[in-house]
């Protein structure tokens, strides 16, 4: 028996929630929970049509399908609770799910704005499954109302049953899978702040959608199904006193490699006074660069005076200077107004001699030159975009996304950059 609507709960941080929707699908598909299924014709990519016949309840679970029709065309199902008037503005959603995987198909289990205005009012993808991977994403609108998004990958096997939980607060979104935090966003600028409903949809790719792996082929079954059960959605109603708080257990960060099966990384070491968080920004309007700093004062200045720089949190941490570390040098290209970071002394000397437009700003922070071989260390991968001149130091999951072309074409891989520490959950984000 799942939690009944009206139930009040309080988490370890004192956040209080009231259940507004609970469905174990033991009594069939309830339109007063989910509205009518999507049935609005051809989807925008031209690869499938919505069909209510792809939504059904069987064996005590909701089943959402992509189906190849007799004429070779595809249909897919979709639904959302906002069609039944059930939404939350901040809160939690929990559910169990298993997603069958196949070439050219994908599931999206998500929060969608009640206004149906996108991307202005945002989107929270609790789970998407492109190329059989587990992706968790927040979307928001850029300065020109374009879709801007931040994906994170957890490496879980989505074709197995898992328990998912999204916690959405005004300044934080977390995704948990089977009790472990696998994705986290802490920048209020990118977090949605309007009413949203919970729902799911099947998706069939066309041949040009490389980020999903292209269209279905002869290996794709005629029906691919997503299984969902035990949905509970609760509205955040503020904070209250914390009763008998228990220190949370730090969860391991999750990384994905493009050469080995996705796996959960070992947990980072306990927080150390000898580690400094590196704050990362993304200039979404002007240069498209990522900027890194350990200086809390510089972070505050950027957040207060450069609105085009979106704060992306503390993505990794660096050590204090020692015999084992190397300097990470920082340059400002006074023409493009982008920054360049390097540990290579020869590159530093070359830039200072041959590139007068590059202003040397000193040592930004410390890192390790050796490739990561122990728990809690991460080797960042360096990429270069010739068209923009930007360099990017990518975390493992980001490196996969760049090499797969999911963040756009043109990036060239330059090899390992430098090695840093995984950020601790106890560090200020």
Question: What's the short version?
Answer:
This protein folds into 2 domains: 8-239, Jelly Rolls (Sandwich); 254-422, no CATH class. It has 4 helices and 28 strands. It has helices spanning 31-34, 296-305, 345-354, 396-403; strands at residues 8-10, 15-23, 49-50, 55-58, 61-68, 74-76, 78-80, 91-99, 105-113, 123-128, 135-141, 147-153, 162-169, 172-177, 180-185, 196-204, 223-239, 254-255, 263-264, 275-283, 290-293, 309-319, 326-333, 338-342, 358-367, 377-385, 390-394, 412-422.
Which SSEs are present, and which pair or pack?
Elements: E1 8-10, E2 15-23, H1 31-34, E3 49-50, E4 55-58, E5 61-68, E6 74-76, E7 78-80, E8 91-99, E9 105-113, E10 123-128, E11 135-141, E12 147-153, E13 162-169, E14 172-177, E15 180-185, E16 196-204, E17 223-239, E18 254-255, E19 263-264, E20 275-283, E21 290-293, H2 296-305, E22 309-319, E23 326-333, E24 338-342, H3 345-354, E25 358-367, E26 377-385, E27 390-394, H4 396-403, E28 412-422
Parallel strand pairs: 3-6
Antiparallel strand pairs: 1-2, 2-17, 4-5, 5-6, 5-17, 7-16, 8-13, 8-17, 9-10, 9-16, 10-11, 11-12, 13-14, 14-15, 18-19, 20-21, 20-22, 22-28, 23-24, 23-25, 26-27, 26-28
């Amino acid at each position: 028996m799942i939690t009944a609507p009206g139930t009040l709960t309080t988490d370890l941080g004192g956040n209080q929630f009231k259940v507004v929707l609970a469905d174990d699908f033991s009594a069939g598909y309830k339109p007063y929970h989910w509205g009518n299924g999507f049935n609005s014709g051809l989807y925008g990519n031209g690869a499938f049509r919505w069909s209510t016949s792809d939504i059904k309840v069987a064996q005590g679970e909701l089943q959402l399908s992509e189906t190849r029709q007799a004429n070779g065309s595809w249909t897919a199902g979709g639904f959302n609770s906002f069609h039944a008037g059930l939404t939350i503005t901040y809160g939690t959603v929990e559910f169990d799910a298993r997603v069958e995987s196949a070439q050219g198909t994908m599931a999206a289990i998500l929060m969608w704005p009640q206004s149906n205005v996108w991307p202005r009012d945002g989107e929270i993808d609790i789970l998407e499954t492109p190329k059989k991977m587990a992706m968790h994403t927040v979307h928001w609108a850029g300065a020109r109302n374009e879709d801007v998004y931040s994906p994170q990958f957890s490496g879980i096997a989505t074709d197995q049953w898992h328990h998912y939980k999204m916690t959405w607060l005004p300044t934080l979104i977390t995704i948990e899978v089977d009790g472990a935090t696998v994705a986290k966003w802490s920048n209020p600028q990118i977090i949605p702040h309007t009413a949203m409903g919970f729902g799911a949809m099947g998706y069939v790719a066309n041949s040009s959608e490389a980020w999903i792996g292209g269209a279905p082929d002869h290996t794709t079954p005629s029906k691919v199904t997503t299984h969902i059960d035990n949905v509970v959605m609760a509205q955040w109603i503020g904070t209250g006193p914390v009763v008998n708080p228990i220190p949370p257990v730090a969860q391991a960060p999750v990384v994905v490699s493009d050469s080995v099966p996705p796996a959960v990384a070992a947990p980072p070491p306990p927080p150390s006074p000898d580690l400094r968080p590196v704050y990362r920004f993304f200039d979404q309007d002007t240069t498209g660069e990522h900027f890194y700093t350990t200086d809390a004062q510089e972070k505050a200045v950027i957040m207060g005076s450069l609105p085009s720089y979106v704060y992306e949190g503390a993505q990794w941490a660096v050590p204090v200077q020692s015999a084992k570390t190397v300097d990470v040098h920082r340059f400002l290209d006074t023409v493009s107004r982008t920054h360049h970071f390097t540990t290579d002394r020869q590159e530093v000397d070359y830039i200072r001699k041959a590139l007068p437009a590059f202003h040397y700003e000193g040592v930004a922070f410390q890192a390790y030159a050796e490739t990561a071989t122990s728990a809690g260390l991460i080797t960042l991968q360096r990429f270069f975009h010739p068209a923009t001149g930007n360099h990017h130091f990518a975390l493992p999951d980001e490196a996969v996304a760049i090499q797969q072309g999911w963040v756009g074409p043109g990036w060239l891989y330059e090899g390992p950059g430098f090695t840093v520490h995984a950020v601790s959950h106890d560090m200020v984000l």
